[in-house]
Design a protein that fits this description.
36% of the residues are buried. It contains 14 helices and no strands. The protein has 345 residues and is mostly helical. The C terminus is likely disordered.
Amino acid sequence: MQRINWIDWVKAWCMTVVVFCHLPQQEDAFYLQYLSSVILSSFFFVSGYLKKPINSQKESLKKYFYCLIIPYFIYNAIYYPYWIVKTYIEQGGLLSFSECLKPIIGTMLGQLDSSFSCQLNGVTWFLISIFIIHWMTDICNRQKHGKTRMIVISIAAMFLYGLNKYTHFAPYLTFHGLVRSIPFFFLGNLLRNTCYLNEISFKKDLWIGVSALVTSILLFYWHIHEDKFILHILLYFIVNTISVFAIIHLFRTLNRIKIILVTWISYGTMVIFGLHRILIGFIDYGLEKTLCISNVTYEWYEALFIAFSICILLYPVIILVKKHAPILVGKNCSNIESSESKKNT
């Protein structure tokens, strides 16, 4: 499939901001609250926009199990030794067998925190959620009233998100991420079959992007106050939807600018998702020991610099993974080889 440059820009930006938001900063900072709330919605939107229909349920499950669930377990396996060392340092002693077993059980149960399990590489909830959404989308697309079903499921997901946030009936990272992300993936998939994003106009895209960004920021300031909870939840999805259009239109203005690093970050988002928390841990620990402080926190410009640096550090890893372990970017080895041979002919 030929790459779409503005989508590479969106994915690279979203991935960099995800790393940025995972760096320790002042938690009540408005910019951090806004970015943490909206950034993954654009990522799910473009994932839905790029999705192609698959004919059979068996083929769908097989493809996405290979591309998403197997990498999920691999990235958690890579993270496990880091978790052991990190927990050993924090506790100041060896872990019991049951403590070592908890993150393994948590991984098997999709990053579940409970009395008998705990999160390991928590950010990999994304892979399980997108696997489920791909499967649901394929089912809907094969049925007669598929679009209507997507809308109904999206409304149900919004309701479950609000209910879970209010009652905490499922204090479960993967479930929470799933129900808040479904509407944006479906929105992207539904817009794929329209002409809305086909024609690029610099002035139009810039005007829509700036207007939508300002609107979403203003509405978010209203949204963060939870005095009126139902309005708070409704505004969450309104703010995120507007922010999605802000981000995609702003980066469509950069469609003519092609930067190889942006393309590779976009291609290797799964690698960055899976490995960036380890690099953050090493950087934080190194600075804490060097500066003799207990908990390092960053100013926004320091966090932004570190986020860019982490993406650049993982650039050669992405190149190696493409060549030697394409499953870690969600690719089938045979598909890589066939695409490369087509380029050479």
